Amino acid sequence: MIRLCEKKDEESIYQIINDAAKAYQGIIPEDRYHEPYMSKAKLVQEIEDGVIFWGFEDQGDLCGVMGIQDKGEVALIRHAYIRTAQRQGGIGSKLLTHISKHTDKPILIGTWEAATWAISFYVKNGFELVPTDVKRSLLQKYWDVPERQIETSVVLASSGYAKGIYSLKRE
């Protein structure tokens, strides 16, 4: 069952993110990986900054989460993580489909360039990679990430929006 996460779910969200993010260890740049991958304080800050988390619940336990953040002209998919033990079961696709129905705006997703499994997942679900020069502009405009992360990330746009997304570049 997919449901909106609540304050009481913060610990579960924290655990899911940090369990699933272990997949990045040895894959993303060493200087960008740390444990925990996301601190509790950072999670709370993300929620305060408008990230709304949806969760996939199985037998009363959250096993996957995905956030969406309204950024005016676009919506960002944020922090899409499935517990390691529940991966490859369609939970991510169900969450992405559900969240996508909650906005009529173009959806952007930023992820690590080296996380080829994540890129493949989003492409399989209808998202398209944006060109590198556009990626940089979008990451600077809609995300608050350091230069090193911009260098090592990609951005994907919801189907049909990838070509039109160029107009969203910072002037």
UniProtKB/TrEMBL annotation:
Q: What InterPro entries would the database entry show?
A: Acyl_CoA_acyltransferase, GNAT_dom
**Coiled-coil annotated spans:** none
> What are the entry keywords?
Acyltransferase, Transferase
A molecular function annotated in GO for this UniProt entry is:
acyltransferase activity
What is the E.C. number? 2.3.1.-
Q: Which Gene3D superfamilies match?
A: 3.40.630.30
Q: Does the keyword Disulfide bond apply?
A: no
Per the database record, which ranges form the N-acetyltransferase domain?
Answer: 1-144
In its keyword annotation, does this UniProt entry include Transport?
A: no
* This protein's name: GNAT family N-acetyltransferase
Q: Please tell me the species this chain comes from.
A: Paenibacillus alba
Q: Lineage of the source organism?
A: Bacteria, Bacillati, Bacillota, Bacilli, Bacillales
